[in-house]
Amino acid sequence: MLSEKIDVDKLEKSDKEHSSTTTAYGSRYFKTSIPKYELPDDGMPAQAAYQLIHDELNLDGNPALNLASFVTTWMESEADKLVMESMDKNYVDNDEYPQTQVIQERVVNMLARLFNAPKECQSIGTATIGSSEAIMLGLLAHKWTWRERRKAEGKSWDKPNIVMGADVHTVWEKFAKYFDVELKLIPLREDLYTITAEDVALEIDENTIAVGAVIGTTFTGQMDPIKEINDMLMEIRETKGWNIPIHVDGASGGFIAPFLYPDLEWDFRLEQVRSINVSGHKYGLVYPGVGWLIFKDKTDIPEDLVFNINYLGGNMSNYSLNFSKGSSTIIAQYYNFIRLGFNGYKDIMNNMAENAKYLADKLQQTGKFEVINKQMTFPLVTVRLKDTDFTVFQLSGKLREKGWIVPAYTLPENAQDIAVLRMVIKENFGRDMIELFLTDIMEAYHHLEKSEEKNDQKGKDNLTLLY
Questions:
Q1: For residue 367, how many other CB atoms are within 10 A of its CB?
Q2: Taking 70 as the threshold, does the pLDDT of residue 20 lie above it?
């Protein structure tokens, strides 16, 4: 035991003596396993801790080759600097960081106007962690409004429901389960991967708190016919007296449509559209995580849901599910707005749209792929394979060998037999990267094709031998 103690002392002494003449890799921390399941008794030098974690994260995918996620992976160095400068500010501390609150309100106002809120409306909104929180907050407001109206009319209010298509994000289903609302989910149909106004009309009733509509669906990047749904709800309002609002999930499309399709009516120009969420960390071009919830008018959010809190020396109004929130992404959103302006965003959106169309056209021209979202409304490409013996899942796996992250999945109910690949085109994915990707996807395709041919021949040879 004594000699073992001496050896440890010598090792520690040796580390100290050589600490100025070696790298982190020469320290004792790189010849033992990194702590994984229990807090270690002792710490380690900052350089060693950094290098160990940095090296382990090399096993993650390369964000630049990630065509799966809508989330922003690049911002300008000036934005990076602002993010770091505001990283230590908790947004909820309004009394301590009042200017951050002012900047958030500026962004809310800019978004309300971008979404064509009528001048006579007093639009309000809030920053959120992402669109999931924004959707839940928006739908909660509509549930409360519906409930209070039912109470005032002396009617039952114990069976609320919400109507949406199966093209929505999972968070809509979470809302229904978490907040005790009946979910009326409209299944999709092959060759029509959105809902229709007629579909919605069959499901709504006097207990419907809201209709969910999507601009830029997760699965295929298409959009629900929001104007047609609005017109149908207006007619229902006049004939049956049901005032059913629309909440538009603009998580990915809300930052595309105003710049590429300014005449498209999907936003607050429509009477029944009362709330919109949008993801700043998607095509808002900000790092994760920031979302935005905008109400058409302050009357769309019941006062009972807004908490007035005496907190850290000041009084503040709060409407959120998550009390604490970093300030950095809010500041980054404002940076983008004043840095780019409307025309700067428009240029970026145009580039992404043209690059997405280029990729879709090239894949279609090979004769190997069928593009699902043929209208190419948003900058993503969804394809399925034509006449192959291998699957999109195999092709996705083969692409991963080159570092490309391309998701393969089946579509929702009633279209679940269709398996697709989806490629999201982001700001920093230019034409040259697309051409490199096209080379690799075709190489992967031909490799799988040859492997299947060999397997077929091997099977035939085995049958011959058996015969």
A1: 9
A2: no
In DSSP terms, 184 is beta-bridged to: 163
Residue 141's contacts (CB-CB under 8 Å, 6 or more residues apart) are 275, 295, 300, 301, 302, 305
Residue 193 to residue 415: CA distance in whole angstroms: 8
- Could you tell me if 35 and 165 lie in one domain? no
Tokens 């013996």 label which residue?
A: 389
Asked whether residue 243 falls in the same domain as residue 323, the answer is: yes
Q: What pLDDT is attached to residue 15?
A: 53
- CATH number of the CATH domain containing 42: 4.10.280.50
Instruction: Identify whether residues 257 and 200 lie together within a single domain.
Output: yes
pTM for the predicted model, two decimal places: 0.90
Dihedral in degrees, nearest 10, Cα atoms 86, 92, 94, 96: -60
Whole-angstrom distance, CA of residue 281 vs CA of residue 289: 6
Q: Is the dihedral of CA 421, 131, 114, 141 positive or negative?
A: positive
- Whether residues 156 and 105 share a domain: the answer is yes
Mean pLDDT across the chain, nearest whole number?
90
Residue 223 in 3-state DSSP? strand
Domain count, the chain: 3
Distance, C-alpha 115 to centroid of its chain: 19
pLDDT digits (tens, 9 = 90+) for 54-75: 999 999 999 999 999 999 999 9
402 and 454 share one domain: yes
pLDDT higher than 60, residue 18? no
Average pLDDT over residues 357-386: 94
With CA atoms as reference, report the closest residue to 125 among 143, 102, 107.
Answer: 107
Q: Does 363 lie in the same domain as 331?
A: no
Per-residue pLDDT tens digits for 198-253: 999 999 999 999 999 999 888 888 899 999 999 999 999 999 999 999 999 999 99
Q: How far is CA 63 from the centre of its chain?
A: 15
What is the structure's pLDDT at 416? 83
For residue 49, the Cα-to-chain-centroid distance in whole angstroms is 31
Q: Is the dihedral of CA 39, 43, 46, 48 positive or negative?
A: negative
Name the band, by pLDDT with cuts 50, 70 and 90, for residue 3.
Answer: very low
Residue 69 lies inside a defined structural domain of this protein: no
**246 to each of 91, 154, 163, 207, 427, how far by Cα in Å?**
29, 24, 10, 14, 30
CA pair distance 173, 193, nearest whole angstrom: 18
Alpha-carbon gap, residue 233 to 362, rounded angstroms: 41
